[in-house]
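quick one before i forget lol
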Amino acid sequence: MYRLMVVEDENMIRKGIVNSILWKSLGFVVVAESSNGKAALEQLEKVQVDVLLTDIKMPVMGGMELARIARQRYPDIEIIILSGFAEFEYARQAINFRTFDYLVKPVNKQKLLDTFTSLKENMDRKREIKEEIYHSNIYLNAGYETLRNEFLQSMLDGDISLFNDFEEKTASLELDFTGHYFAAATIKFDRKSIFEELESNWGTDKRLLTFAYRNIINEELCDIDDVYYIVEDCDRINFVFCFPSKEKQDELMVPCLESISDSIHNCLFKHVAVPYTIGIGLSYPSIHHIAKSFSQAKKSIQNNFYLGEYRVQVYQDNNESKYEQNFIRFYPEEMEHAAIAISNGNYEDTRKYLVSMFRTLSEQNLLPEIVKNYCVALKLMVQSKIMNSNGAMEEIIGDEFNEFVKEALTVKELSAYIINIMVTLAKAIDETIAPMEIKEQQILIDRAKAYISTCLSEKITLKMISEHVYLSETYFSFLFKKVTGITYIDYIQKLRMQEAKRLLVNTNHKVYKIAEMIGYSDYKYFSVQFKKYVALTPKEYRNQGRREKEQQER
């Protein structure tokens, strides 16, 4: 959604513009109104605005002066002039200020709609170009590893925008978040001691020290799957852990962190004793909560810094700890099923899963706050799967969702609201993909499959595939899942694993080379995915496959 400010001194006209247009359906949301240019400039300092729709003749400061100053201060802002003055001079000035359009009052409503439709298309193109330039620069200048680290650190820092098209982003970065227990941790070395060590042994070059960190951590993690780390600075290393079970977490997490810390200390710090503390946050059933776990990990260090021999500090003894532990004790799997059903427009399954979810939650007799938190989590899960779906979610769920959930008095009231609104959303999504005949859908998906099969050695993106079949990215993603029953990401992985199996048995290529040949940059990530898919390591599969092949040839 692009953010719009309306500036018009006549209150009736201004309210008419704001209230008579379905702005969200056009891709805009009105975030500010003003009656003159001076007041508008004051608001612009406080509110982020993408588009300025302003009248010309207003008291205190007119629209032309407002446009001139706004253009100087906010070069990227789009400006549309709305005025009853049709003289050429005003139009000429508007062009000088790079206004998008100049509309003469009384403006035809359809003309206004057409103008903003055209404006959104123009702004979307600019945004796409900027994103392409940004990502190209990152890949070219910073490298693949840096891109992954920035993504992970931004996720830990709470950037929720990363969860838009999350599967696409993590697949392209070869990150796997398919576990059931997600926790963040951080190792904090004493900064003063680190600087003393740098001066005495590393020539004050932090890059050499952090490079040495990475070598040690990579070696320590070679046999542990689904652990990611970021060397934030020479005195801090952050971790994201993804475990399939609580037992696996209890078995591996603390020993892993202690082993890494001890290895770094014993191998690298030769001249100065460098104290360190390990902070661990609570585990959550969704990667969406990893920023909260990371915040807890940092708090655990701040609250318990270097207490005697207790180097490992697990977040606890806090008023919210009991609530958090209750929250993660049980996590209804129906939530994920419901989110997938909604994203595919399957409203019958949506109702079935949500009815089952609320029945299960009621049987658990959980605190009302926990049940409400699950409802908000469901919204986030749905949002991450259907973002950019023609504004359907914004129109149907709206801004009152969180408030209603918060104020609900009974689980019956809450469940009726959630089921109704999510089923409505699923129906709306279903309508967006209904017009195409099944045969035509299958032809498009077959064309996409053929294209994918020719690009397995490349970094295949959703944009590449959707452009090949002339569909929007969101629509193609929905359509592929609807026709095939699996996501396009799972389909690509299936093809790659089948090709990997063939290459392992029939060629002598090293495993890392095979990983490269089928489109994986990270050899370890490939090995982890292969083991999940086949239940054997690449080496084990190669040995077994060749033995079976030899027996068949005898």
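fyi Residues 90 and 294 are 55 Å apart (CA to CA).
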